[in-house]
Specification:
Layout (H helix, E strand, L loop, with lengths): L1 E2 L14 H7 L7 E3 L2 E9 L6 E6 L5 E3 L10 E3 L5 E6 L8 E6 L6 E2 L8 E7 L5 E8 L3 E8 L5 E6 L3 E6 L6 E5 L9 E5 L5 E5 L11 E6 L7 E6 L6 E6 L5 E3 L7 E6 L5 E8 L2 E8 L5 E4 L5 E7 L5 E6 L6 E4 L4 E3 L13 E7 L2 E8 L8 E7 L13 H8 L3 E6 L8 H4 L8 H16 L3 E11 L1 H12 L6 E5 L5 H7 L2 H11 L7 H7 L12 E6 L7 H13 L4 E6 L8 H19 L1
Parallel strand pairs: 1-37, 32-33, 32-34, 34-35, 35-36, 36-37
Antiparallel strand pairs: 2-3, 3-4, 4-5, 6-7, 7-8, 8-9, 10-11, 11-12, 12-13, 14-15, 15-16, 16-17, 18-19, 19-20, 20-21, 22-23, 23-24, 24-25, 26-27, 27-28, 28-29, 30-31, 31-33
Helix pairs in contact: 1-2
Length: about 600
């Protein structure tokens, strides 16, 4: 066994390589702006080397770092009146904490809600008066509870259930609260309930009953007009995500039936007369404007690639965060130009992705391929498996894959069954044979990569973080003869122990995926746990883990490592003081160096 100290070979002096510049280059998120004070905005940046919240007064141009913590801060909300910044304070990335708030112009951080103990967050909505809030919280003991706080008074509990739930939105006039819940026991498909601030029910919408398939709903937001009882809702009734309008007072549902392939989401324009439509299809995305009066759909021009977030401003312009695999992310506006342009080092470009479609056991699989410019195969190839599992890789900028390309590797990213953006059936395929289904799709793409001449079959690396780290450990155990190296970041390694140690919301998701608890369906957990196959692992394995991780807790990783140690298997472990990943740039660079070094040593 090797416990890495974070100093790989070749990490000495010299000029900074492009891959490291991409991590160090200042980045910003899409700014969130105050509904009633649109010149006041809040965004996240790594400008100081750690991801923190920044307040931005657009009228004066002043930008101020609002948080400053050793392990970073990314969860924050600006009150609609623009007077307060709410931010979630946990301990070293453990995601268990309380909401604090500070004045927008700066000042002391104070508890935002007196009387609520630390918990995992389960949604937050702040009223336009700045002093009313709806706070969702989750604990192992209580499940999910939702509380209303008015004018600094004691919080009033309006909702409680053992299953996962969360705050969806608060209406513009503060009289209605939308809640997403999974009281039916399916954590992958929420139902909706609208209640008054005293907790009495106004309306229910539930697509999980009455059909052969359970369908999900999501809250997209109340209309931004006083007295307007329309709620924008995402639904799956036609086999994909798309929006509709539900009038919670009358019960009327307005199906927008937008003629766009793939998944569709939306948000309101500030005057409530139109929707800003976000469209995702086959790993790319774009924007549209939908007019309620005429029913017309008009394209909002954005470059080819991926829009990671967008918001409509009061003047009718749209700000959006855009990137492609080759071009680093930037916040742009349809009114022209760059919205936020942080000073300092510019991230070097990378290479574009190529689309590959492969026939698999569950249908056509979409993969994204990058390789060094001008390179011909067979190449050492990294299969970088995304997390989630309900997520997808897209044509967007990612410094990790770009680093592998810089070092001469091809990178293949597979949108396996369970990925979003390819229809409900593709996403919902992950039931009971958890992990094994995804690996079947990865295997089909791997076979294509080898037979096409792209990948060297003797230099195949399986890598990923979170769910991707889980699939990595499961893959090197169940497919021991095909992978030369495994690189697993913050993985699930021992699924039974992980279930018992993880946060309550993830327990609910696991019960949905497996059809029960480890005690109720032990064979399914055993079949899907990397620990079951640890003695079959032949490839050298590198594992990195956050010691405070509530999603993939450290004890279950230690159980897996102990088994590797017992049989003398080649492996290295790197533990760091954070949670489910790090918000510190230097720490991220260190981890990439370690992975690059480990692969180079064991593929030579």
């Amino acid at each position: 066994m090797t416990e890495s100290n974070g100093t790989p070979r070749g990490a000495g002096g010299g000029s900074m390589p492009d891959w490291e510049k991409r991590f160090r280059a200042p980045r910003v998120s899409l700014p969130d702006w105050a509904e009633d004070a649109p010149d006041r905005s809040l965004f996240v940046s790594n400008a100081t080397g750690t991801y923190e919240l920044y307040a931005w007064d657009r009228a004066t141009g002043e930008q101020r770092r609002a948080t400053d913590r050793p392990n970073g801060t990314t969860d924050g909300v600006l009150s609609p009146d623009g007077e307060w910044i709410w931010w979630f304070s946990d301990k070293d990335g453990d995601e268990f904490g309380v909401w604090l708030r500070q004045p927008f112009a700066g000042g002391e951080d104070v508890p935002a809600v007196d009387g609520l103990e630390a918990s995992y967050p389960a949604g937050l909505a702040i009223g336009r008066d700045g002093s009313t809030a709806v706070v969702g919280r989750s604990t192992d003991e209580d499940g999910t509870t939702i509380h209303v706080v008015r004018g600094g008074g004691a919080p009033q509990e309006i909702y409680r259930h053992r299953e996962s739930a969360g705050v969806g939105d608060l209406s513009h006039d503060g009289t209605l609260i939308a809640i997403e819940h999974t009281e039916h026991g399916d954590a992958m498909h929420s139902a909706l309930r609208v209640v008054r601030p005293d907790g009495t029910t106004v309306a229910e919408l539930d697509d999980t009953k009455g059909g052969s398939q359970e369908l999900g709903l999501e809250v997209l937001g109340f209309a931004p007009v006083d007295g307007d009882t329309r709620l924008l809702v995402g639904h799956q009734r036609r086999g994909r995500w798309e929006p509709m309008v539900w009038d919670v007072a009358s019960g009327e549902e307005t199906d927008l039936a937008l003629d766009l392939p793939g998944d569709v989401s939306a948000e309101w324009y500030p005057d409530g007369s139109a929707l800003l439509v976000a469209h995702s299809f086959e790993a790319r995305s774009d924007l549209w404007r939908y007019e309620f009066g005429s029913g017309t759909l008009t394209r909002v021009e954005t470059p080819p690639g991926t829009v990671s977030g967008a918001t409509a401003r009061p003047d009718g312009s749209v700000e959006y965060l855009w990137s492609s695999a080759a071009e680093p992310s930037v916040v742009r506006s349809t009114s022209g130009g760059v919205v936020l342009d942080p000073p300092g080092l510019r991230a070097p470009v990378s290479v574009p992705v190529e689309d590959v479609w492969v026939e698999g056991p569950g249908g056509r699989i979409h993969a994204l391929v990058q390789k060094p410019a001008g390179a011909t195969g067979p190449l050492p190839t990294v299969f970088e498996v995304h997390g989630g599992p309900t997520w997808h890789d897209s044509d967007s900028f990612a410094a990790g894959p770009a680093a592998w390309v810089d070092h001469g590797y091809a990178v293949v990213r597979v949108n396996y069954r369970g990925s979003t953006g390819y229809g409900r059936e593709w996403t919902d395929a992950l039931k009971h044979r958890v992990g094994l289904i995804e690996l079947e799709d990865v295997s089909a793409v791997r076979e294509w990569a080898v037979s096409s001449g792209l990948a060297d079959p003797d230099r195949l690396v399986l890598a990923g973080g979170s769910w991707g780290g889980y699939l990595t450990l499961l893959g090197v155990g169940t497919q021991p003869d095909v992978w030369a190296v495994g690189l697993a970041a913050v993985p699930v390694a021992d699924y039974v122990t992980a279930y018992h140690d993880e946060m309550e919301a993830l327990k609910a998701l696991d019960r949905t995926l497996f059809g029960g608890t480890p005690e109720e369906v032990p064979d399914r957990f055993t079949a899907s746990s990397p620990l079951t196959y640890v003695d079959e692992v032949k490839a050298p394995v590198y594992i990195s883990a956050g010691v405070n991780d509530p999603r993939c807790p450290i004890r279950q990783i230690d159980n897996y490592v102990d088994r590797l140690v017992a049989r003398g298997a080649t492996h290295e472990v790197y533990r760091y003081d954070a949670g489910h990943g790090s918000l510190v740039v230097e720490e991220r660079i260190k981890q990439v160096r370690l992975e690059l070094d480990f692969a180079a040593r064991h593929l030579s």
